[in-house]
Design goal:
It is built from six helices and five strands. The protein is α/β, with parallel strands linked by helices. Strand 1, helix 2 and strand 2 form a beta-alpha-beta unit. The longest helix has 7 residues.
Length: 111
């Protein structure tokens, strides 16, 4: 997801056109395309999905996703910020790598 310019109000209808939403799911993408709006770019690899992103949301626990190294996030993302809704990564490992990691249910002290 790419952030809009600060001049774009977050509640503006135009704001939804400023964010770039990219999705990668090695298993469910074909089904998701049927129910999720077309304003989403379905990518063919995790690297393509992460490329120049500011924030990534982890919403699945597939092995391919679990095996993404902190280095991959750092290499491909513009700003490596990871929100992990499945808690599949070790917060301390990401913190040591300089990645802003937020895991649902963890004490998210990134200082």
């Amino acid at each position: 997801i790419r952030r809009p310019p600060r001049s774009t109000p977050s509640n503006s209808s135009a704001a939804s056109d400023v964010y770039k939403r990219q999705v990668y799911d090695p298993i469910a993408s074909s089904n998701a395309k049927k129910v999720i709006p077309q304003k989403i770019n379905y990518t063919h690899s995790i690297e393509e999905c992460l490329e120049n992103s500011n924030i990534v949301l982890i919403l699945t626990e597939w092995e391919e996703i679990k095996n993404i190294s902190p280095g991959t996030f750092k290499t491909y993302m513009k700003t490596p910020i990871v929100y992990d809704a499945r808690r599949i990564y070790d917060p301390e490992t990401f913190k040591r790598e300089g990645i802003h990691y937020y895991g649902v249910g963890y004490n998210n002290d990134n200082s």
